[in-house]
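FAQ: What does the model actually see?

It sees only this:
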Amino acid sequence: MDAQHLIFDADDTLWENNIYYEAAIESFIDLVGHRELDRAAVREAVDEAERTNIRRHGYGASIFQQSLLDCWCALHGTETPDPAAAAAIAGLCGPVHTMEMVLIEDVAATLDALSARHHLYLLTKGSEPEQRDKIERSGLACHFRETTVVSEKNTGAYRAFADRHGLPPARTWMIGNSLRSDINPALSAGLGAVLVPHPHTWRLEADHQPGPGERFVTVRGFADLQEIF
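And it is asked to produce this:
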């Protein structure tokens, strides 16, 4: 196979990320202890607060914490959470702000092998300082020709990335765990895409799955990328 251009997602593709957010949300639902709404309804309220703040402010741990504060206020019919609630929310968000970098199984060895044969890039979305910190602490930056942080990963972002680096679409692939941010917009931009499923992918990243085709592949685990590339 000729050398390919492989663009990798970061969160929940290379390292664990959403598990910290999910743990915080579960603790938040416990904290709310709503008398009328069940856990699923409170979770929907959290999702709505997150959607609103993402549109306004983007992604990141601080935005997530603000979403929980906003959700608390909405559920309790107040504009400002009481100090005890605010402190409790800050406490349960602590692991999100200082998350341990846990690489997903086989990531380091697979990147070692792939970088010997192909051109690797990293493209992630979110808060630039937070994502840069995670990239540095992961120890994986050495595998990539470039690491890029964008505010959103959509069709335009993939086209701009490919154009900026002169990547021919026929030999360029996006690899990630999110249908909404990694797979579907990359396919729309004319790139290939490989889905590496993660059991705890953020539910707001759900989207329709493309039909089978030579430009879309699903693998069972990260190490299986070596069978494709």
